[in-house]
Amino acid sequence: MTDLGFTPDEIMTIAAARSLTNDDVCFVGIGAPSAACNVARLTHAPDITLIYESGTIGTKPDVLPLSIGDGELCETALTTVSVPEMFRYWLQGGRITVGFLGAAELDKFGNLNTTVIGDYHKPKVRLPGGGGAPEIASSSGEVYITMKQSLRGFVEKINFYTSFGHGDGGDHRQRLGIKTKGPTLLITDLAIWRPDPETKEFTVVSLHPGVTREDVQATCGWKVKYSDNLEETPPPNDLELSTLRDLKARTKAAHEGTGKPKAA
Question: Cβ of 261: how many Cβ atoms within 10 Å?
């Protein structure tokens, strides 16, 4: 692929960040979702409310957290509440507009697996598990997903249903009594996807610069469908790139113990 001045990971993170607004109350997953949410906060959405599973509300980390228990989250939050309050009052109470998740496996209806690869009782790989992701997927107003494309991750049938997306498609969520929208956006290192309004199968609506349909299909385990109005994702601008790169550099230095100590 031609050198475009940014990496596939960078455009994935920045495209995801663009999807967020000042008015969002976002339940943030660790990893790529956290990077995207904080780039949004540091650029076009300074008033976004970021919430992490450990109970931190309105957190503004200077570096990306290693886990939900990272002290950086609590130190920079407006307040920290108990985990039961976080889930019962904030999440299940309908106060979260966007749940931002990643996964090890995903299918074409946005169902996610973060539990196990292979047979549950004799797995090939035991993954970290769902944590709060199943509740986030069902109780957030809508769900955004960030994930690198690969044949191992984008599969026809996931090994385990950790977080329910659109099930078998169509109105499956509604038939189960789930009233939230579910996954409405998937951002990968190659493209932006949205669910078909009727079938709920994820469809490519935008290809990142330099990416072809063949690139997308080669890293996806099902037959990819494309929007009739397929677009090209705008490339990252200088502010977006410098913000993301500075954030990653600060994070790397902090986790290696070479960053500047915070003022007392």
Answer: 6
